[in-house]
Sequence to fold (172 residues):
Amino acid sequence: MEQKIIRTLAFIARCSAAATAAYELASLLGLTESVWAAMSAVIVSQERLHETHSSLKGRIFGTLLGIVVTIIVSEVAAREAASVALQMAVSVAICALIARELPALRVAMWTCPIILLAVRPSVPIVVVALHRGSEVILGALVGWVFHWGAETLVDAVMRTMPGHLKTSRAHR
Fold:
């Protein structure tokens, strides 16, 4: 029972701290939509460290896929004066086709609207895409670091507890 309480408290602390740290770090770096860093730090965090690591990889590669697809579609659409709604439809459709076969990359579908809806006429889409992508990837990395740190701390605490049976490693 003590182990469950410790793990519950560690989960709460790491999620809260990761969201806050990601938000603050993104703000310090001058990223204008720090909310995506905070959200990504929480979204990437799973129950077990290997699951968080897998989530991190999918989040990074999916975000990069969404960035590339959105920029390409936007550049082609600009020549045809296509609406943002059409650009979103095409970008999400392309990413959905890929994510259907590679579900870990589903975040690519979310990345397209996040970028397209943040574009302002005075800012090139590449700049917007790099900012939004940086915020998401930064948050995901912060979330993983906090999970790894929490697991390391919980393992150390568990080793000091009387009657500890190497169960903390099994949690990973």
